[in-house]
Amino acid sequence: MARLKGLKRQIRMSRWLIIALVAVMVFSSVGITYAKMQGGPKNKGAVPCCCDPFTWVVSNDDGAQDSINPYGIIDPGDDGGGTDYDRWGAQSSDDPSEPQSMSVECDRYDKDVARTTAWMAEDEREITVLVDNAYPSYYPTVFFALACPDSALGTITDIVIDNPYPDALTVSTSEIYPGQPIPQGGEVTGAVHVHVEQAAAQNAVYTFTVSITTECQPAVTCGTAYAYHVDYATCFLDIGFTKWGWTNGPLGPGFYEFQLWAGAADCDTSKGRLVGQVTVEYNGSTAVVTYQMYEGNWMTATHLYVGNNRLPRDKKGNETVSPGQYPYVHDPLNNVTTDSYTVTGLSGNIYVVAHAVVCWFE
Amino acid sequence: MGLSEMRRKRNRFSRVGMLSIALLLALCITGVGYAAWTDEVSMEGTAKSGYIEVVLSPGACSGPQITCSVSAPHTLVVTLMDAPPGTYTCGFTITNTGTIPVKIQNIAVSVVPAGVEVSVLGVTEGMQIEQAGVYPDSVEGMVRVIVLESCIVSCSFEVAFSFVQYNMYIE
Fold first, then answer.
1. Does some domain include residue B45?
2. CB contact under 8 A, B44 and A207
């Protein structure tokens, strides 16, 4: 009887568990939907925000030439010097009659009848384009740039033009394309062209949307790293080499912990980045050398020397510090955070040169 | 309810629970991935078109023997009554009240009676008329009629104009 009651209680608990899970899923879905409606979630964590902001926008028929550093004049011809028909007052630019390429003149009619203006929202995530008093064959262009923060590499993954009125308007893009990389700390420029077609009705309002999806990856920096122990390390520079790095020894049997420093030029750890540690467990005949990365770092290769001499030797028998000539190599490694070697057949005091190629997000 | 049946039911609930957890995890991973790696910006465009509107108005005529009126949309109807041989004129005005400049694409005189010569003066094909408010947004013209033989009762003919937006004129 007691067992039956226990089972009933478990079933009741399972029901509540399912209800709770469903509720969490519903709220999660609502949250993601809301985030999408708000223009996508803003990532403020360790991974940098994506290459989302527009940095500038220029219309080629707003009555004024625009100069953007470092490109110079973006829209030559939009000079406010219309040859005839100043519909827009003092700033009159002849209407473009063909798509314009950035910084290159385009054909224009001899009239200023229509006008196109474009501006960015305050959050720089949306551009509004207004084409006014348009007529068939009017062909304005809007130039813009998308940028990446210094800490990210971006890629344009998709460009979608939503044009519900294809008979009246043709909307196209140029100078940007899916797959186009956005350089770290740089920007890419693009253009949207609007062609008013013959079928466009008079006194009509047409809308269109151009959506650009970007994907970003934090910028990755990789560097060479060496194990260092304050009591046992000797800088390569101090023994006649031109590259930095350390040999550590002599080490008798015991357990040792080394710091793993990347980019410590001139063997100056203040110039470097502490990326992990290396431990050496030596029992007099076998040494177990283990690399362990600190969070946010990973390895793509390791090279190790363990022996009685202070440095390994090359094929000619000369001392070398080149990692490629160390006797123990794991290259490549698949972005690992730990790596280990077991070196046998040792005796006496040993020296350890532990090298790694270490990467991290900027 | 038997013990074994309750066990089966419990197992079923466990399976559903596991499935829910898996779905929840997938959803979370999707959300996190979305947040970290993709973003979307957009350009919202609005295109407002202008319009063409041309008004043809009859003007003063040279005498009681000649009258003119406008029939839709841009046709001038000229009528002669008891007109002895001679020269008669009728004026007209073309006004662009739209927002787009226009050009006169064609001027066609039709159904000209025998013994009458008609010419249109002051306006020509290809002439541009600016939109409302911009000079010149109207032009004045004249229909000149030379009657060679008396038009005893009534002679009439039409002068039809067609217009196109300024950049669509075909020579």
1. no
2. yes
A282 Cβ under 8 Å from any chain B Cβ:
no
Q: Where does the pLDDT of residue B28 fall: very low under 50, low under 70, confident under 90, or very high at 90 and above?
A: very low
Note whether B81 and B159 are same-domain residues: yes
State whether B94 and B19 are in the same domain: no
A40/B38 touch (CB, cutoff 8 Å), yes or no? yes
Q: Is B163 in the same domain as B134?
A: yes
What three-state secondary structure class fits B20? helix
Contact B88, B99 (CB under 8 A): no
User: β-strands A254-262, A297-307: how paired?
Assistant: unpaired
B59, B32: one domain: no
Shared domain for B70 and B23, answered yes or no, is: no
Same domain, B58 and B89: yes
The reply to whether residue B46 touches residue A129, judged by beta carbons under 8 angstroms, is yes
Q: Which of residues 87-106 of B touch A (CB under 8 A)?
A: 98-101
Name every chain A residue with its beta carbon within 8 A of the beta carbon of B98.
202
For residue B54, list chain A residues with Cβ-Cβ distance below 8 A. Answer: none
Give me the residues of B, 51-80, that contact A with CB < 8 A: 51-52
| B46 assigned to some structural domain | no
The CA distance from A103 to A11, in Å, is: 72
Q: Is residue B41 part of a domain?
A: no
How far is the C-alpha of A150 from the C-alpha of A160, rounded, in Å?
26
Q: How many domains does chain B have?
A: 2
Q: Is there a cis peptide before residue A140, judged by omega within 30 degrees of 0?
A: no
DSSP state at residue B167? G
| A102 SS3 class | coil
CATH number where B64 lies = 2.60.40
The answer for A 92-111 residues in CB contact with B (under 8 A) is: 97, 109, 111
Domain that holds residue B144: 54-168
Regarding whether B69 and B32 lie in a shared domain, the answer is: no
Residue type (1 letter), A298? W
**CA A203 → CA A136, A193, B117, distances in Å?**
12, 21, 41
The verdict on a CB contact (< 8 Å) between B100 and A50 is no
Report the interhelical angle of A2-37 vs B3-37 (nearest 10°). 20
Q: So what's the ipTM on this one?
A: 0.72
For A33-66, b where at least 16 C-beta lie within 10 A, e where not — what string?
eeeeeebbbebeeebbbbbbbbebbbbbbbbebb
Q: What is the mean pLDDT of residues B164-168?
A: 91
Say which range, A78-92, A167-181, A244-258, A304-318, has the weakest mean pLDDT.
Answer: A78-92
| The two structure tokens encoding residue A52 | 């989302």
pTM: 0.65
